[in-house]
Design goal:
Blueprint (H helix, E strand, L loop, with lengths): L20 E2 L3 E9 L3 E8 L5 E7 L6 H14 L8 E6 L5 E6 L3 E3 H7 L6 H20 L2 E2 L8 E4 L5 E4 L6 E2 L22 H4 L7 H16 L8 H10 L17 H10 L11 H17 L5
Helix pairs in contact: 3-5, 3-8, 5-7, 7-8
């Protein structure tokens, strides 16, 4: 796994008279999706004809601008095949921030799970989880906490072997800068079903919050559901009151997975961070050990 950071993109403004051209070098082709802070478009480099993804903030508000600039800077630190690459950064003439990233030809993990009938056979689920954990490990090594790991923020790139690409570092945090604050003290950020209990309690977080979220994602791939159901305050209170789930339901027609896999996933979902694997790397190593064991013990499929 490469640890070498990419150069930080240099901001610059685009002044083209063509409204479909941004930063003077990328032509917008179609809308891919839209979120709370910005929209993502399919685009093409005018110079190289390379297809790219172009993320443009909705407004030029004082709160959104730092998020976009921070996302570009944090992504530029990470050089890993399982994390979407940032290629360029700048501003539109009206001041709106623009982040240009590699284009991923694929679908979100959320859609990928749905396309496979709501759950994924355990071996494939483990391999996808390994891509997720390897990407998170690279981010953590670069001092970046994602803080919003969920199927919607994981793309599965099409190919003979599906490749995980982690996206949307919009609420990521620089773990090396304890004084950096883009949110208010005690403000809860993230997606409720995937947030670690310490995030829900607005306590200090470290890499183990991403390990917890990766555990939720793997639990969902295996079983077709998340560990805690419900919505809003009820979901949050149930999660805070529980030491963690104790079972993973086997979907109908699914072949059983090794007991060691259940034990690992449940350990990633412990309410107490000290009871989880200490790092994404540690969790990935345990997953690889489980796969190796099944080669000599092929009773599970």
């Amino acid at each position: 796994m490469s640890r070498e950071p990419r150069p930080t993109p240099k901001p610059h403004a685009g002044v083209s008279d063509d409204p479909s051209v941004v930063l003077d070098r990328y032509r917008i082709e179609s809308l891919l999706g839209s979120g709370a802070f910005g929209a993502v478009y399919r685009g093409q480099s005018i110079r190289s004809h390379t297809v790219v993804a172009v993320k443009i903030e909705h407004t030029t508000s004082a709160t959104q601008r730092p998020r976009f600039e921070r996302e570009a800077a944090l992504l530029a630190r990470i050089n890993n095949a399982n994390v979407v690459a940032v290629l360029d950064f700048g501003h539109l003439p009206d001041g709106a921030a623009v982040v240009v990233m590699e284009f991923v030809d694929g679908v979100s993990l959320e859609k990928y799970i749905a396309q496979h009938g709501g759950w994924i056979p355990w071996r494939e689920a483990v391999n996808l989880a390994l891509g997720l954990l390897d990407g998170l490990d690279a981010a953590h090594e670069a001092g970046v906490l994602h803080r919003d790991v969920k199927p919607q923020n994981i793309l599965i790139q099409r190919g003979e072997v599906p490749v995980v690409k982690i996206v949307d570092f919009g609420i990521a945090r620089d773990s090396n800068d304890r004084l950096a604050k883009l949110t208010g003290t005690g403000q809860m950020l993230g997606s409720l079903g995937y947030m670690a209990p310490e995030q829900l309690a607005t306590d200090p977080v470290d890499v183990r919050c991403d390990v917890y979220a990766a555990g939720v994602v793997l639990f969902e791939m295996l079983s077709g559901t998340t560990p805690f159901t419900g919505a809003g305050l009820k979901l949050a209170m149930n999660k805070l009151a529980s030491p963690g789930p104790t079972v993973i339901a086997l979907p109908e027609a699914a072949k059983p997975w090794p007991e060691e896999l259940t034990a690992l996933v449940l350990s990633m979902l412990r309410s107490n961070p000290n009871e989880r694997p200490a790092t994404a790397y540690d969790a990935a190593q345990e997953l690889r050990a489980i796969l190796r064991k099944t080669i000599s013990r092929p009773t599970h499929s």
